[in-house]
Amino acid sequence: MVGATEAAIQAGNVVRGTTSPNPPVGCALVDASGELIATGATSPAGGPHAEVNALREAGDRARGATAVVTLEPCNHTGRTGPCSHALTQAGVARVVYLTADPFEPAAGGAEHLRDRGVEVVFQPERVAALQPWLRSVRNNRPSVTLKFASTLDGFTAAVDGSSKWITGEKARELVHQDRATRDAIIVGTGTAIADNPSLTARYPDGSTRPVQPRRVVVGTRNVPEGNLTRLGFEQYATPEEALQALWETGGRDVLVEGGPALAASFLELDAVDAVQAYIAPALLGDGRGVLNRSIADTIAHARRFRTTCVRPVGNDVFLEMEKDVYGSR
Ligand SMILES: NC(=O)c1ccc[n+]([C@@H]2O[C@H](COP(=O)([O-])OP(=O)(O)OC[C@H]3O[C@@H](n4cnc5c(N)ncnc54)[C@H](OP(=O)(O)O)[C@@H]3O)[C@@H](O)[C@H]2O)c1
Known about the structure:
The strands form three sheets. An eight-stranded mixed sheet has the order 10-9-8-11-6-12-15-14, sandwiched between helices. The chain has a five-stranded mixed sheet with strand order 2-1-3-4-5. Strand 8, helix 7 (about 190-195) and strand 9 form a beta-alpha-beta unit. Helix 3 (about 85-90) packs parallel to helix 4. It contains ten helices and 15 strands. It is of the alpha/beta class. The structure holds NADP nicotinamide-adenine-dinucleotide phosphate (NAP). NADP nicotinamide-adenine-dinucleotide phosphate binds near residues 195, 218, 239 and 257. InterPro entries: APOBEC/CMP_deaminase_Zn-bd (IPR016192), CMP_dCMP_dom (IPR002125), Cytidine_deaminase-like (IPR016193), DHFR-like_dom_sf (IPR024072), Eubact_RibD (IPR004794), RibDG_C (IPR002734), Riboflavin_Biosynth_HTPR (IPR050765).
């Protein structure tokens, strides 16, 4: 079953960034001997869900099989039919799910399956790919991840303003990989004007990846002609307006890439759900901080997070933290 669980999680990982407003769910079907029959993942909005894609691939072999799904099968008819019904119709004997569905209209899949004689097992596990979506449906706004690159002593630029490059190539490659899994990238007008960024997700050779996030700028100043204007971007006057507009148009998972004024604003709004820090083993002693102002006057008031990932990336260190961890009862 460990193999099937891994296969389901992996299938969900692959479609991150392509499924909003739906969650990136993965499903694996195994037969009675434990052999993997099929995998499936959520299609873009309006398309089949993970379970249906896996069932289609399995065909008749789904009868009597075990389905491992990263999220409780949905039980409602939206743009597609309920997955719980598709599983019973296909004759699946057992369903293992890793995360309970907190989305009220879709919940109840486990009960539907049990009522029809399917063995249902809830095997709680933190599925990283689902965390942003879970947070978004609980908060009724997109999940916000604050990302920054800094030196070991917390500076994002030197005293002369230079910041290219604090981290190495491997870290920058990871940033681009991550961008492709997000619905939008947000920066302030300060960064848009100072850096003339393209905010695209690219491969190391500079070519653009097939899936691109929306490009969002927050602030009232005009962004001069440059990369962003050429590619097209959305601009909102405040962080609240940006989050509202993104939520209403299907945005569930967004990345705030700075700068320090905008990052402090999102923290003051208590709208930072996760942090990604790329820390370079370098010291500056002075320079520009990750935030441009104090957000806590004493240690007891510091904004704290739970560390979920620490790993070396090239010669740098990647840290991931979350405010809350959802998904298991
Ligand atoms: N190392 C890193 O990870 C990193 C990442 C990004 C940027 N940077 C650096 O950061 C520097 C730019 O920083 P910055 O602080 O000047 O700019 P910024 O944070 O990108 O943008 C600041 C602007 O955002 C808007 N804004 C912020 N909070 C707001 C709020 N609560 N309501 C409404 N608007 C709000 C305002 O725009 P208006 O004034 O237009 O209304 C404000 O002037 C650049 O040099 C860049 O290279 C470093």
